[in-house]
Amino acid sequence: MRIKRLDPELCTQCAGKRRAPGEIAGQHTRYPWLRHAILPRDLLLAEALHAHLLPQCAPNSERIICHHNNNMRIVYLVYAYIMIHDELGVVDTQGPYGDDAVEHPRWRSASGDVWTRSMKLDLVPATASTAEALNISADWRGEDLSLYLDRCQVDTPHDLVTATWRAVEQRRTRIETVVDFGAGDGRFARQGRYGSYLGYEIDWNRCALDALPANARIAHRCAFSEVVENADLAIGNPPFVRNQDLPSGWRQKVTEQLEARSGVALSGLANAWQYFFLLSLLSVSEDGLCAVVIPYEWVSRPSAARLRDYVRSKGWNVDVYRIADATFGGVLTTSSITTVDKRDPTGRWRFFADDGLGGFQQLLSESGSAGGHIPYRSARGISPDCARAVRGLSPGSQQIFTLTEAERARYGLAIEQDVIRCVTSLRHVPSILGKLDEEAFDRQFRLAGQRCWLLNVADEPSARLQAYLDSIDDDMQRATSTCRERPIWWKFKMPPVPDLLVATSFKGPVPKICGNSVGARAVGGVAGIYGLTVEAAQAFMAAVADLDIRDRIVAHANGLRKIEINQLNELLAEVR
Hints:
Rossmann fold; 4-stranded antiparallel beta sheet
């Protein structure tokens, strides 16, 4: 397995700043010497050398002072008053551990590259082309990193780790090199049989390094800061983070890197796991295997279409095992164990569902029905004067931009002038409602404490509305990328009034649909259907009420199904 560092001069301990020639290592920190790094046995000497020493030192002149604690099975790499003298190529070191400090063995190739024999890795200094590519890790800092970590830190249940390794062992009798791009606490490293394991984890607090096997290591850095090639297996549970919560600079750089390697430009709506999944596919050898835990919806969602097309174009064999919704408590998506096998590519795709008895039952299609899921009809192909479905408004944060009746009254906001009616959910509304008039709106939303008032920012805000906007603190204003990327954080285009309101998530035979005589805007998970006459709207609702489309929609989470906007457009065409 080959690993190429994209930016070896990046000082990972100094928030992405680079040292000038002759500068003291660790000068950017609050200590005169670098905070010690807790690492597993025989682990990241290469990381330390590349990040702090190699760029400034002559070959073979480095000295690394380490302190071994055999009981903890860790190594403390200590840099104390490390002075770099470029002209002499000398590293002068003093360590706080005195006589206990020992010089750790270093391994170097003939060309001067640092490597570790036990890991069978080759770290190659960046060329001009790769150095040009990216300082990826520098985008992970401050509030972006905190927000990302808050969203993605979900432990993989041990039973699911076991099941994933079982899927691997059904396909391979021998695995030499393993890579895991979202290693977390290293639990995938503690199962399975392999020659060596390399995990990447950006959150230092997640690395349970003292519990790793001797042939496993975790690199504390962004998974995209190196190019890994020719691994036998890519395994793991990539981070489940929405695209809105990804730092825009990171997303752009990673998209460019992956496109350069694969020719695939992922959708701007791609969530984090898609980037990691594609990275896994690119990092295994031509007969390698990927076994990853990712949302089951990747088999049908439009945002993952480019991934599916790429896999199909290669003819790789795909098996997708839909796992029980309760596997990840509190995670609102149905997960899967997905294996992509590059060996003996026949282009076969198979789908399975958890049978509740410890096994899996093969499905007829990704949705379970013989006919497959409802196709996607793009709005681009629909005439402007024809009916169409449009997703609900995403204003940035419903907590800020949609208010309950009590909140509206507290801030003294006037109906129609400062706020207008909206619907953010139909979950609590009876299926037989049929029509949302003013009386039903007051009963089901206004008096029920639902968020039903959307800030009216179409024109210059009144003094009352401006006072409310000014009361929102800076952290709340920047809590979503939608707000951060606007010239004026609260200014958005007001959506038109739909003829029908549709809940895109549902548990019954069909989604809840109601007429919209009150003129409410569709927000969030409520879509709008436009371009229907009153008669056509009633006919559509009547026709849909007789259907059962559950086996034509891919499972989403906790018994929910989620119909996509372009599937609604197809449904409009089918029943009208």
